[in-house]
Amino acid sequence: MKSNSTIIEDTICAISTPPGVGGIAVIRISGPQAIAVADRVWHGKSLSETAGHTARFGRITDPSWGGEMLDEAVATVFRAPASFTGEDVVELSVHGSRYVQRRLLEMLTGNGARLAEAGEFTRRAFANGKMDLAQAEAVADVIASNSRASHRLAASQMKGCFSRRLEELRDKLLDLASLLELELDFSEEKVEFASRERLREIATEIHSEVSRLEKSFSAGSAIKDGIPVAIVGPTNAGKSSLLNLLLGEDRAIVSDIHGTTRDTIEDTLEIGDYLFRFIDTAGLRDTSDPIEALGIERSRQALSRAAIIISVVDATCPLPSPILPEGSDGNQEKHASGEMQPLAPTILLLNKSDLVSQVSATNHNPTNASSVPDGSVTSDGFYCPGGFAGSGDNMNQLGHKESEDSGCSDDSEESGYSGKSGNSDDSGDSNGSGNPHPRVVSSINFSTKTGEGHQDLLATLTSIADNLRGSTDEDTILVTNIRHAQALREAASSTSAILQGLRTGLPGDLIAQDLRATLHHLSSITGTLTTPDILASIFSRFCIGK
Questions:
Q1: I need a labelling partner for 306 at 20 to 30 A (CA). Which of 61, 71, 439, 488 fits?
Q2: Contacting residues for 478 by C-beta, under 8 A, at least 6 apart
Q3: H or E stretch at 320
Q4: Which of 491, 489, 480 minimizes the C-alpha distance to 523?
Q5: Is 235 exposed, middle or buried (0-12, 13-18, 19+ CB in 10 A)?
């Protein structure tokens, strides 16, 4: 890989292990004088005479204190260019005492090194051509990965899968750009070097791939940061009890009083390959309490950001229709106008099933039309009003208690739910008032008291996450970095302009401008084209020792 910078003359050092006390600590030294600086505090076989990729046991001694021993240590030598930074590197492994770490850094900086800045080791690796910018950013993602799925995405990017795909697209654009530029040199002869049909095919292919990558950011960022799961539903349905059951601790207050939860409560849980970020929300209902209203507004915000929704309903009560109340995500106007996509995949959780003699809803896959009750979930996974089993009579079979003694509310104004059954109107994705229907992917009989349905819920969550990720190939490319997503969005806009220009017969020089713009945006991701300010912003997010 081509070097991205001039020769770096100073030598840097930093602690590369997490701060605090530990069994060992590693101090990394990198630069042209790294081995010489380490030798000045080293007592043992000379590091200057040690071959690369070799470890030596010895002692750290303090020259300013008459050679007093600071600690026993292992020194590992890496010689340029076969090192992480592409420079001479020495890593000193000492005992993890705070004092030893601090004093060793003081000794190194007193013998010719300086303290490294945040991300400077990785920045030098980029500058010396050991990795491109996208790979360098992936180093930070690998360090921060908190699940197998997020680690696999970061590792794939770090080993260059994303960069190679961008390079393939860039090479195709360069070929076309060079032909168009050649046409400009022969503009008076009106020679056409680039076939417009071929140009249109390649531009369509690039636009499709760039758009796909940009759209993958939603799934990629969710997997990287923890898949957001909103737990929603009416008051006293068991949302907080569900959160406590999932986490295995009393994280949220549980009470028989309606409207106990006034704010969102978040916590994370690793299930299988994924980290899920569960968000317990205030019960969705109409209220005159201003504090509860603020909590409900935050519930709507959590709902709109969720990648998965768990809709908790009381199985002892008639199933509400729709299962989420009007405007539950606060964006009903945008949904009605087609500006927003339907709500996230939704798991319908029929809680308190231990209190019911028989619950009519069964687990099902909405893509299998034969297993879905009529009038409940369409073949594309959308819930239709009309009662889960198709009628109000069947819907009422979910419970055997009357509302007076079951705690169910039949006051639609209080609950925020219509509680009525009916037929789907002709919109297919709206209840006629601009409210989107959730995409119900599974319904589960559940009990937070007995644990019934717990394993089914965990299995359904991981199944939805698998669909979110897509391919199980370890080299699957999902964009996880917002800077990359923004650059891809700009590139998609430029390729769209290229296609528009080809359709309208735009002159080659104007099409060439859009080609150059696309090249610029793609090159900014890998660092082929960048600025010092961008680099400073990226590497400032790294830890000091990386």
A1: 488
A2: 153, 216, 217, 219, 220, 223, 469, 470
A3: none
A4: 491
A5: buried
Angle between helices 508-526 and 133-144 (to 10 degrees): 40
Cis omega (within 30 of 0) for bond into 438: no
Please give, one letter per residue, the 3-state secondary structure of 403-433. Answer: HHHHCCCCCHHHHCCCCCCCCCCCCCCECCC
Q: Do the strands 439-445 and 345-351 form a parallel or antiparallel pair, or are they unpaired?
A: parallel
Q: What are phi and psi of 310, to 5 degrees?
A: -105, 110
Taking residue 352's Cβ as centre, other Cβ atoms within 10 Å add up to: 26
Where does residue 219 fall: left (phi above 0), alpha (psi -120 to 50 degrees), or beta otherwise?
Answer: alpha
Q: Could you tell me the end-to-end alpha-carbon distance of the chain, in angstroms, rounded to an integer?
A: 20
Which residues are within 8 A (CB) of 4 and not within 5 positions of it... i.e. 6 or more apart?
Answer: 126, 127, 128, 129, 527
What does the alpha-carbon distance between residue 81 and residue 254 come to, in Å, rounded to a whole number? 60
pLDDT tens digit sequence for 440-465 = 888 899 998 888 999 999 999 999 99
Say what the pTM is: 0.70
Nearest-5° Cα angle at 275, 342 to 302: 40
Q: Which contacts qualify for 501-510: CB closer than 8 Å, 24 or more apart?
A: 502/196, 502/199, 502/200, 502/203, 508/180, 508/183, 508/184, 508/187, 508/192, 508/194, 509/180, 509/184, 509/187
**How far is 420 from 205, CA to CA, in rounded Å?**
49
pLDDT band at 64 (very low <50, low <70, confident <90, very high): confident
For residue 314, the surrounding DSSP H or E stretch is strand 308-314
Answer with the residue of higher pLDDT: 414 or 409: 409
What does DSSP say about strands 114-115 and 12-15: parallel, antiparallel, or unpaired?
parallel
Residue 248: name the closest of 523, 458, 67 by CA.
Answer: 458
**CA-CA-CA-CA torsion sign (169, 475, 216, 367):** positive
Greatest Cα pair distance, the chain, in angstroms, is 92
Give the Å distances, CA to CA, from 488 to 162, 200, 217, 267, 357.
12, 19, 10, 32, 55
Give the gyration radius of the chain's Cα atoms: 30
Higher pLDDT, 205 or 436: 205
Give the whole-angstrom CA distance, residue 40 versus residue 55.
17
The phi-psi region of residue 539 (left if phi > 0; otherwise alpha if psi is between -120 and 50; otherwise beta) is alpha
Contact 230, 302 (CB under 8 A): yes
Burial pattern 477-486, b for ≥16 Cβ within 10 A else e, equals bbbbbebbbe
Adjacency order of strands within the sheet including 12-15: 42-43, 54-62, 68-78, 89-96, 22-30, 12-15, 114-115
DSSP 349: E
CB neighbour list of residue 494: distance below 8 Å, 6 or more residues apart = 514, 515, 517, 518, 521
> How far apart are the C-alpha atoms of 240 and 164, rounded to whole Å?
46
- What whole-number distance in Å separates Cα of residue 90 and Cα of residue 313? 60
Report whether pLDDT(247) > 70: yes
- Cα–Cα distance between 541 and 527 in angstroms, integer? 17
- Residue 534: which residues within 8 A CB-CB, separation 6 or more? 524
